[in-house]
Structure formats: structure tokens, C-alpha cells
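Private note to self, pasted from the team thread so I don't lose it. C-alpha cells:
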């Protein structure tokens, strides 16, 4: 890229002894959803009335107490929606709606008309203050821009008295704050607050929007701390953030802004909004959750949030979207899978503390499940394969089987150029180790005496029925001896394990056998039966068949 010289670095803010880098977020800010205004105006096909009402109800359901419902003076749809919420009493008593208005007389008046009869509302006044907007768009001086803000603030206060002063909270945004000189942002904000005269009992909101994200998040945080230090009557003002995502850092900028002293955050679910979007409130809230902070928003059913969003915006959620994406709780890498498997097993020791490698949050906490945590493709390893078989089918593979079977699964995934489903993995496991040809067990009888076990077995060998008899120290020893006496093979059992595959009296047992032949080659076999002894004999036969088939 050759034209980088056309761009200038964003100037650093001179802020001595900044304190925000040492601060920690310990409580949730005041949240304000702007999905129905900023989010909606960015859609290719804006929401209809029904979609907006459904979205509003969902925002209330998950805990938002402040919701910007639109720009009612901008269109009839916005106006009608605001009136419907008020006239049909759809706004809970503990929820405050917010409406946006430019600092223009006819727009402010139309805004109050839309709010007639409201129980409580935030009137959000804004005008652009950045150097670029002043010089290029409006061709106005600093004093002229400030006068525009002050005149709007006066009318907002005047009309509030006419419509019921106690019903309204005032909010001011020096829009394009991110491109505004910090000292001028303070100057114009002070002038607006001088008109409104906020008190501790009735605070005003000063919203400082990162309207276009122009610098790294730390610069935004510096600007927030600068204003918080220098604004008059700070104790009577709620400092609010509204970060956009042009550099992909809106969440980080909002988090650092809260550390820098902000009390409130405006944003949207899944980051919808103009251009690259807004700060994603869901991500920011769940980031807090993973740090042990109550976000005061309920995302325990994240799938419902996805459904509402996709139905309303007609846009899909990216598979890698934090916390909500289809693949965010999924590991394909072998080393990741092994670590997750071990972490999940360790949870038994401390179920009250979530500590699983590669998973910063328990999927169950957001309404997901563990099924997709480990998925198998050509990048996967033995640990992931073992986890799939254990969690889906109750197969607790011994280490020897894990080491042997992992590469077999990987090769199949490579050959077929696809991810393998749990059912496909189980089928491959059974086909590999539960070998029924050329030898199989039909029936057996055992007789125990004081010093040995006698066994008589009905077998099939290459389709023909045979009966073999033998004895030994136990049923396994006796069975191995009669096989070696009848067939030209020699082997020793070096590993044996078995377990129940399910709970209950009707559950099946699975037995894992590792044998060494006379050349010290390893052969593996499994057997499955409701009868533990029979599953052991079948496992031995499976391993022996591997010898016979070589």
C-alpha cells in the first residue's frame, strides 16, 4: 500500500498522571441499548413495527433499564413506534426510553410531541463538534457550534417544563467527540450543563461518543479521563460512552473508558450499527462475567438473543463471534482438545470454580451445551477423539487405544476431506477394534472348582461351528489357553480394562484388550455385551482376529 503518507497519526492527549491504567472494573455500568436507533438505522432493511416491538420486549427481558427507541422526528415509523410504546403501556415502570434529537428547533419540538404522556424518558440532544465537521460540513466557528448546542439545550429544558419536567432526563452528546479537541469538548459540554443545571438528585448525562474510531482505545480512555477531570460539577453528571468499531476496538475502548471514569455505556447486541458497528454490549457484559463481575444483564439464553437479532436485522451471526458464534466453544486442534478434556475432568474436584483451558466461560452459563466443544477433523488429536467417545457414548478409552486410534481417525478425515461426526467416529472405532471375523463367540459355559475354571465354548471359525474346551486360573486364562491350543498363535495379555457404558441394570459392558504376539507386536480388541465375562471373551477374540488377519 503506497498511499499511507496521506494519513496523519491521531495526536496523543496530554494527560499527566493518568489513573485509568491501574483501575479495575468491579461493577457493571449503566447499560443503554441503542439497537432500535443506531442499530436499526444501519440496516439495509430497517425493522418494521412488529420487529421493533419484539426487540424492545427482549431487551427488557434481559435486563436493560435504558433503551434508545429511535429518532422520532426523523420518520413516521420512528414516531409511531414511540407513540405505540407509550399509548399501549408497553414500557415497564423501571425502564426508561431514550430518544435522539438534533439541536434544531422543529426536530426538538417534534421529539417532545412523540413523548407526550411518557412516564420517564431521556431526551438525547446532539450536535457535531469535531474539527472536520466544523470546517467541512457546517463551516462554523467554535462559538457558532457552541451556540447551536446551547440554544438546543435551552429549548429542551423549556419544552420539558411544558410536557412535565419530572418526566425527563437530559443527555447531551458532542457528536464526533473522538475528533474534537478535548478542551473544546469540555467547554461546550460545560455550556450545555450550565443551561440544564443538573443536581445530584437529577443528574444529566454527558455522552462522549467515539463516533468514528480514530485512535487506539487508550487514547479514547485518556480523553474520557480528561473530561471527567475537567468538567464542572462532575458529581452531578453521568458520563456515558458510545463507541463505534471502525478500528475493531469498540469493546476495548468502552472497557478502558469505564476504567477511565465513565458511568454508562451505550451499545448494541452483537455490535450492530453504522459502518463497522457499535460496541457489542453482550460481549462487554460477558467479559465482565468471566471476571466474576455481575453484568446485570441476562445472557443465559444466548440462542434466543441470536434468534431475535437475526430475525430483526436479517443478518447472520458470524461463526467466530465471541460467546455466541457456532464455533467459539469448539476445538479442532489436538493439543487444545487434550487440554480441554483434562480440564473438564478436573472440574469434578472444584465444580464451583470454572477453570478449563481454552474456554473462558462455561457454555452452559449462556445456554449452550458441551456437544460441540470438541469436533474432529484432520487437525485433531487423540485427546479430542477420546473426549468425543467418552461424552457421547460412554467409552473411556485406555491410553494405548487413544494413541492407536487417534491417527486412524485423522487419516480418515484427511482421506474424506471432512469433519467426522461423533457417530462416524464411533462406527470407525467399532469397525477397527471389534473384529468379528474369522473367529467369533456364540456361547460359552464355565465351571468353577477350587483351583481352576473349566470352560466350553461354541465358536464360529470362517463360518463353521466348532466347540473348544479348556481350563485355567480364571475364565480369561482358560479361554486364552484353549485358543492357543487350537490355533497356531501365541500371545500374552498385557493390558485389560472394562467398564459399564451406561447407568442401570440393562447397561452394556465394554472390555478393552491389548495383547502381544510371539513377535512382540501389539494387537488391540474390544468386546461389548450385557455380560461382563462375554464382553471379555469377545475382546480377546477381536484382538486374536487381528493376529489371524495379518
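Design output:
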Amino acid at each position: 500500500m503506497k498511499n499511507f503518507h496521506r494519513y496523519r497519526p491521531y495526536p496523543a492527549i496530554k494527560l499527566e498522571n493518568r489513573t485509568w491504567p491501574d483501575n479495575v472494573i468491579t461493577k457493571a455500568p449503566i447499560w443503554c441499548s441503542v439497537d432500535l436507533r443506531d442499530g436499526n438505522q444501519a440496516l439495509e432493511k430497517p425493522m418494521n413495527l412488529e420487529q421493533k416491538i419484539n426487540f424492545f420486549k427482549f431487551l427488557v427481558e434481559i435486563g436493560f433499564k435504558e433503551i434508545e427507541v429511535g429518532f422520532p422526528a426523523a420518520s413516521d415509523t420512528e414516531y409511531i413506534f414511540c407513540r405505540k410504546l407509550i399509548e399501549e403501556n408497553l414500557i415497564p415502570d423501571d425502564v426508561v426510553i431514550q430518544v435522539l434529537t438534533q439541536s434544531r428547533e422543529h426536530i426538538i419540538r417534534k421529539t417532545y410531541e412523540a413523548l407526550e404522556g411518557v412516564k420517564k424518558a431521556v431526551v438525547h440532544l446532539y450536535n457535531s463538534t469535531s474539527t472536520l465537521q466544523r470546517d467541512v460540513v457546517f463551516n462554523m466557528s467554535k462559538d457558532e457550534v457552541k451556540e447551536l448546542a446551547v440554544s438546543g439545550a435551552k429549548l429542551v429544558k423549556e419544552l420539558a417544563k411544558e410536557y412535565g419536567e419530572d418526566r425527563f432526563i437530559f443527555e447531551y452528546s458532542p457528536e464526533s467527540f473522538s475528533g474534537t479537541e478535548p478542551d473544546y469538548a469540555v467547554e461546550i459540554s460545560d455550556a450545555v450543563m450550565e443551561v440544564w443545571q443538573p443536581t445530584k438528585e437529577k443528574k444529566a448525562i454527558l455522552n462522549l461518543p467515539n463516533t468514528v474510531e480514530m485512535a487506539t482505545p487508550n487514547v479514547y480512555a485518556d480523553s474520557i479521563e480528561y473530561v471527567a477531570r475537567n468538567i464542572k460539577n462532575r458529581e452531578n453528571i453521568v458520563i456515558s460512552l458510545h463507541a463505534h468499531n471502525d478500528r475493531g476496538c469498540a469493546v476495548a475502548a468502552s472497557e478502558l473508558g469505564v476504567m477511565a471514569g465513565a458511568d454508562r455505556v451505550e451499545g448494541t447486541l452483537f455490535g450492530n450499527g453504522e459502518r463497522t458497528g457499535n460496541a457489542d454490549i453482550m460481549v462487554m457484559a460477558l467479559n465482565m462475567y468471566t471476571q466474576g463481575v455481575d453484568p446485570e444483564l441476562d445472557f443465559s439464553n444466548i440462542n434466543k438473543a441470536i434468534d431475535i437479532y437475526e430475525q430483526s436485522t436479517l443478518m447472520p451471526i458470524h461463526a467466530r463471534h465471541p460467546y455466541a458464534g457456532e464455533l467459539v466453544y469448539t476445538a479442532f486442534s489436538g493439543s487444545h482438545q487434550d487440554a480441554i478434556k483434562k480440564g473438564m475432568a478436573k472440574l469434578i474436584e472444584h465444580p464451583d470454580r470454572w477453570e478449563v483451558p481454552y474456554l473462558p466461560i462455561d457454555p452452559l452459563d449462556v445456554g449452550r451445551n458441551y456437544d460441540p466443544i470438541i469436533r474432529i477433523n484432520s487437525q485433531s488429536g487423540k485427546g479430542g477423539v477420546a473426549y468425543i467417545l467418552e461424552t457421547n457414548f460412554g467409552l473411556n478409552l485406555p491410553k494405548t487405544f487413544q494413541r492407536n486410534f487417534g491417527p486412524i481417525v485423522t487419516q480418515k478425515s484427511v482421506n474424506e476431506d471432512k469433519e467426522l461426526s461423533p457417530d462416524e467416529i464411533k462406527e470407525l472405532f467399532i469397525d477397527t477394534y471389534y473384529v468379528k471375523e474369522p473367529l467369533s463367540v456364540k456361547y460359552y459355559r464355565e465351571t468353577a472348582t477350587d483351583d481352576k475354571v473349566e470352560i466350553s465354548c461354541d465358536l464360529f471359525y470362517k463360518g463353521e461351528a466348532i466347540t473348544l474346551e479348556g481350563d485355567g486360573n480364571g475364565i480369561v486364562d482358560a479361554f486364552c489357553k484353549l485358543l492357543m491350543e487350537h490355533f497356531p498363535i501365541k500371545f500374552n495379555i498385557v493390558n485389560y480394562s472394562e467398564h459399564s457404558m451406561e447407568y442401570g441394570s440393562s447397561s452394556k459392558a465394554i472390555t478393552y484388550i491389548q495383547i502381544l504376539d510371539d513377535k512382540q507386536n501389539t494387537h488391540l480388541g474390544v468386546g461389548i455385551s450385557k455380560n461382563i465375562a462375554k464382553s471379555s471373551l469377545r475382546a480377546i477374540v477381536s484382538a486374536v482376529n487381528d493376529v489371524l488377519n495379518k
